[in-house]
Amino acid sequence: MDFSGKKILVTGASSGIGRACTLQLESAGACVVAVGRNEESLRNLGVPAAQIYVVDLSDEAAVKALIPRLKAEIGPLDGCVLAAGMHTFRPLIMESFNDIYRPWSINVQSCLGLLALLVKGHLIAKGGSVVLFSSAAARTAGAGAVSYAASKGAIESATSALALELASQKIRVNAVSPGVVRTPMSEGFLGKLTPAQLSALEARHPMGFGTPDDVASPVLFLLSND
Question: Has 148 been annotated as catalytic?
């Protein structure tokens, strides 16, 4: 796939799946607009400094300030990969109101809030493609993943609605739904499992846990003209 001349925004670009998407897009010739919180990690991607934006997407004011910068410095985007997210792994009985809200604020509110501002600002070109991230946890989650699974279920519902809402602008909206992928974020909750729990979880993945590159490749397909 050739992305020469295509401008693609990637959130969560500093780590995990977002990083893999950024590197594969760069290799395919895309002009990648890398958004994340870790400036050092973003600069290590090899993306030109003018295309790096250090933003906390949970900060509404910071996200609103990003839009005029993108308009002035980048222009209309051919695609968006909204990979920024968080995972929580704790029984519901141990969670407070704020604990339950945290994965929702990052996985849903920040994602859809940014997308709303991009659309309102006419920053996604006609014929563009948006890729969001659900999770197999939305349908096959186990105990301890209630808040996370709920947030990813919300993304799947939002994807269906957005696909229809933006169809008149010829903007495609899809979501990928990985199982467990070995990333710095997933290692946090995998490390909390007992050996027996970890073996049981891996047994639910017939080909083993995934890698970020496993997910990045279908993301590029969804972004492409194909």
Answer: yes
